[in-house]
């Protein structure tokens, strides 16, 4: 996609063909999503350590901003669990939860992460998100789910406890568990049990009662709404808030405030790294949800343009009293399943939330916090995937290590250091691996011009030519390794007169490796061995041609390994039909 | 080399065959090296901000320790320029130069870096040094040379100025240049001119006078000794030290003291990173000198065992009043050229330095500091290689960037942060490069079974099979890139029924890339395209076999690309003789 006004304003794509059918579908989806989003927004704001109504503010203008600048037709933007947890940790590092400074820090985080996302979009830096491997993301989400569920236990027990890591949380709960409010615990436990039942059993039950699959699904997802309504009614009827059951309390009614985050350079600087991590994690979560949904309808999303959409949504959140937002999985799926056709569904959802905050806030005053905590606990339960540890272990020890380190550090030290550790470990293991490349002595597969590892295949080799395939680009970290291996191979094979380095897997030769190759050539020459290359790729060859290497090389550069062997050891290439003597390598 | 007592005590290798000829050669070399090493040790200690005699202490027991544990026959260990500069910066970050705490910090650095080197040896971590690319080392050495020469200007001018970076040094010199002592400047400038003349002109002159090449070379290298002797005599005769010419002063005579560095946990911790950097830089410098010399005599050095040798030398330096040491280039070459046969030459050199400190220290009392500074300036001049910038630029922009960043940060911010920046930049550029791999559509080179890029070669391709070679291992950083590219290629080629991914350059498929391949297979399948792999390497195939990927794959895995084409598009493989229609790719 070249530069194009539609890249900046992707809504032009769908606005031209918008018709009444779209309008109906979008409106229906918006009603469904609004009903689900209201309790979710209150709950996630509470998880972020913010007053519940901040969650509603974060679900209005950001949705409109995303509808204008985002490329996904069905992504539903707003507060999500993992980003709320990261906001709690980041704002908690500069202010006390509950204080006005804490709320101000959340605003700064939203604006800062909006600016970072927009800047990344301008600089085409969306690829940075690729450096978060699946294993690190999966470990991060699992560990965050455990942290989130544990952090909500205080609301279920009706106690005061805080902390950003498992040791802190567990110690905090253990120290205050004596003060458990049993009515709160009863409400919380009942809500958890009910929500799990809804999640696992309600849908099959509704299907058996004859409801169509789609409706059964949406009704099952509306479980939290029922829990909220029932528990609020119960608390109000029995005045349980007088008995120590903590409730949401009065929510200021009215339009979201216009907020301009204070500009304090040192505060912005201290929040810059957390904001960057929130941006990248939010971006990765959002893009993977959007791509999953887009693929189902053969639509495409443009990852780089998504940066503008999410950037705009976060700036909007920061300017209207919210906190960092991103595309959420559950609500996007609900939006999609409820039939949303275009981002206008998001605009209608925003209108629904706005109506809620203007007219319906009194209904939430007696909503028990324990029920919000229960909806969070049940929601994050699906994030925890400990089975991934076993699957990853079986496939790749390096991926397992990255995942395990991420989980351990997130749980023990916190979300930010945890995700950074995961990235560092996964990159370090990749670099370590490339620093000691696999190398194979190759011979010809009988009847073909194909050369493979003598240790794995029945192949034809000769005495005087040593063909070595090196399975990595040659760069500083492995240049000396290659040198040492070649010298070792030569030392144990006195009959060898030619070494052919098969470069089919060499995608780059950097300056350090070039010096190594020159040194090898010199040293092999003085030992009476000629050094050749074969199957050097175009881009690598272009580079080599700009140096003196090819002029000094004792041997030649062959287009293919077969050509090299035809020139250096014709006997090895004889017997195309596989009748030549076959030497099976040791 | 498996585990073996000779690995721990490599001197057993040469001690058995030691004879009188070896003894004579080693003794002669030791005399030559001792004469050169005395002024050099005084000078480098001064560069490190330490009293000059510390340099002599660092040239006694460390040499004996290296002789016992090192593997190079001719490496001469002791104070060197770059490590002295790093010591000055590191000790200067915790204490004031000239203070007893500064000397104590240097001792800690020596012991700590000795322990780090030994630990790296035990853990086989010698490969870590490979992560310093040629470009970073070259940039680091050049910038260090400039910093060192500039830092010595204060001694030539006879002023007080200090600093660890160019801006600090230049500001310091500018602020105090009014206090220049012109006699000092005269001596310093004359010494510099003389030493440059010796370096460039003396050897050819001596050859013309009929001296053999070897003797002329050694005499030319003894220039500093002559400068030291002549300037000391001059200062003593004219009592110039009374006229403000700073001299070395009284050197405590006697055996090196036994020192046990104070153990203060926080001080050791603060010096740990500098000690690690000193260890790695010293190790890299030492190993490259040792390997160069070993190659000339067809000897081998074992890089991992070298860690024990250098570790022992540094621990010895720390226990006998010295500071960090490593193998030096100039002195090792002199040792080698003077005919040293075994590390016993180092032991004899240590005895020579010991004799100097016991009996000859009064001779150095009137030695002007400006002359020591002149020997340093002339010595480091050969380290500065600005031409490398141009050569590297022409070969590789990534290598150039790493080198330029290293030089700039060393000069502007200091040696430690400079080398770390260089490593980070070079690794980041490597990772960036692997995150967007080169990909090529390939076709058959007529008359062969070899497949190459359609854009570079005249090759045969078909309409229904798209063969794509991806030139990189598949891992998290490029998994999505590959996915997007394949989708784009398919979207513009509606006739394609098969995609063959030619994996000759794929050395690894990690868990993230495996998920991408599964997603691609699913998506291609639903678009009516079959997905195949060819030339998958043994180690990669072993991994894939442990998963469900191969069972679900819509297509097949072919041993070679030729086999794939023979099965999927026989027309493309027809005409072995090159008579088939040739389609030249766009």
Automatic annotation (TrEMBL), chains A, B:
One of its GO terms (biological process) is transmembrane transport. PANTHER family: SULFATE TRANSPORTER. The chain crosses the membrane at residues 27-47, 53-69, 76-96, 102-123, 135-153, 173-198, 218-240, 267-295, 307-325, 345-364, 371-389, 401-432. The keyword Membrane applies. Residues 455-568 form the STAS domain. The lineage of its organism: Bacteria, Pseudomonadati, Pseudomonadota, Alphaproteobacteria, Rhodospirillales. This is Sodium-independent anion transporter. CDD domains: STAS_SulP_like_sulfate_transporter.
């Amino acid at each position: 996609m070249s530069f194009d006004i539609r890249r900046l304003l992707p809504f032009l794509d769908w606005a031209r063909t918008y018709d009444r059918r779209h309008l109906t579908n979008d409106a229906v989806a918006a009603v469904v999503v609004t009903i689900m989003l209201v309790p979710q927004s209150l709950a996630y704001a509470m998880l972020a350590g913010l007053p519940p109504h901040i969650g509603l503010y974060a679900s209005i203008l950001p949705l409109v901003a995303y509808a204008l600048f985002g490329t996904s037709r069905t992504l539903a933007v707003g507060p999500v669990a993992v980003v709320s947890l990261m906001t709690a940790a980041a704002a908690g590092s500069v202010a006390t939860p509950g204080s006005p400074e804490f709320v101000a820090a959340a605003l700064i985080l939203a604006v800062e992460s909006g600016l970072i996302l927009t800047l990344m979009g301008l600089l085409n830096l969306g690829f940075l998100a690729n450096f978060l491997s699946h294993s690190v993301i999966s470990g991060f989400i699992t560990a965050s789910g455990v942290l989130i569920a544990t952090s909500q236990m205080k609301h279920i027990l009706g106690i005061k406890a805080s902390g950003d890591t498992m040791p802190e949380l567990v110690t905090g709960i253990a120290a205050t568990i004596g003060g458990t409010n049993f009515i709160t615990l009863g409400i919380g436990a009942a809500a958890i049990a009910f929500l799990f039942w809804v999640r696992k059993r309600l849908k099959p039950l509704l299907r058996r009662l004859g409801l169509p699959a789609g409706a059964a699904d949406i009704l099952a997802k509306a479980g939290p709404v029922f829990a909220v309504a029932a528990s609020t009614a119960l608390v109000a009827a029995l005045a349980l808030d007088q008995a120590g059951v903590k409730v949401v309390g009065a929510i200021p009614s009215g339009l979201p405030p216009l907020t301009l985050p204070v500009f304090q350079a040192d505060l912005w600087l201290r929040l810059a790294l957390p904001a960057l991590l929130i941006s990248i994690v939010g971006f990765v979560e959002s893009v993977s949800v959007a791509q999953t949904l887009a693929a189902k309808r053969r639509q495409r999303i443009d990852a780089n343009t998504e940066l503008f959409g999410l950037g705009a949504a976060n700036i909007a959140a920061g300017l209207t009293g919210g906190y960092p937002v991103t595309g959420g999985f559950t609500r996007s799926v609900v939006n999609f399943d409820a039939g949303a056709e275009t981002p206008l569904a998001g605009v209608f959802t925003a209108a629904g939330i706005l109506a809620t905050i203007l007219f319906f806030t009194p209904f939430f005053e007696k909503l028990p916090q324990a029920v919000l905590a229960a909806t969070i606990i049940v929601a994050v339960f699906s994030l925890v995937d400990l089975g991934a540890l076993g699957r990853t272990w079986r496939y790749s020890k390096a991926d397992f290590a990255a995942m395990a380190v991420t989980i351990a550090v997130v749980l023990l030290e916190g979300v930010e250091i945890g995700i950074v550790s995961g990235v560092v470990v996964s990159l370090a293991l990749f670099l370590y691996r490339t620093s000691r490349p696999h190398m194979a002595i190759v011979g010809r597969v009988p009847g073909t011009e194909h050369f493979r590892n003598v240790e794995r295949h029945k192949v034809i080799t000769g005495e005087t030519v040593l063909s070595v395939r090196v399975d990595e680009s040659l760069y500083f970290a492995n240049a000396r390794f290659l040198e040492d291996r070649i010298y070792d191979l030569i030392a144990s094979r006195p009959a060898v007169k030619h070494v052919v380095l098969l470069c089919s897997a060499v995608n780059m030769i950097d300056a350090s490796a070039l010096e190594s190759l020159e040194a090898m050539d010199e040293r092999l020459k003085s030992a009476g061995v000629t050094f050749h290359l074969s199957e050097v790729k175009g881009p690598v060859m272009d580079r080599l041609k700009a140096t003196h290497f090819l002029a000094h090389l004792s041997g030649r550069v062959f287009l293919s390994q077969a050509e090299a062997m035809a020139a250096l050891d014709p006997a090895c290439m004889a017997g195309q039909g596989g009748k030549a003597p076959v030497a099976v390598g040791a």
